[in-house]
Amino acid sequence: MELKFFCPRWGCEHIDWDAFCEQVKQAGYNGVEYGIPNETEAATLDMVWEKLAKYRLDVIPQHYGTYDADFNQHYDSYAAWLEKVRPYPAIKIDSQTGKDFFTFEQNSRLLEVAAKHEVLTGVPVCHETHRNKFPFAAHVTYYYLLNIPTLRITLDASHWVNVAESYLTDQPKAMALAIERTDHIHARVGYPEGPQVPDPRAPEWKEALGHHLQWWDAVIALKRNMQDIMTITPEFGPYPYMVHLPYTDKPICNQWDVNHFMMQTLRARYTI
């Protein structure tokens, strides 16, 4: 197993790409996870990939912005996004796919489009466990995983903890299968009332961190003797994921510092 850590562009969009890439490189990340809006033009993508190559940073493009409630429009928008990023080399794609209210058959058609993209490009597509998307809950994703043997996921268990309002101890089969099918991890810590604890370094969030570490440990244990590239993105986000102090509009802690802490913690934990 080769383990690589990716820094989210999310929350750093205000930073010039050269400055951002230099900061990412100096911090010890292997690459960048880059959320690409559907309307992004090729000239912008050309520039970003040029900067990433300049600093020798790998990239995981992230799809998140297909919001159409009409399935046919949604399908076309999603397919167009995949076509847009097809020319650009990537380690993997992280995809927030489908809608929670689409039928199994509808979401499966979107998964088929992603599978065809993977065959054409050789770039694995990992479907992120995310609220509002098809894998919004552990028990729902379990059904998809059972019925689609080739389905691979980005495990972001923080969303499932929030949706289920629990640490999922009553869903061991769903968690075990999800761990088995995980090819990418979003290392954010959720809790029963929200998808992001205010600060995972604080002792009051030790229980929440512990549950997530158990799941991530299990993924790494399965991958340890494989030839795969295992990828992790510490993905604590900015406001409104990040709590702000009342009346000040100031974040309760520093997003960059929290993600860097998670990267350093997990690198030390999983490096032999």
UniProtKB/TrEMBL annotation:
It comes from the Bacteria. This is Xylose isomerase. It comes from Niastella yeongjuensis.
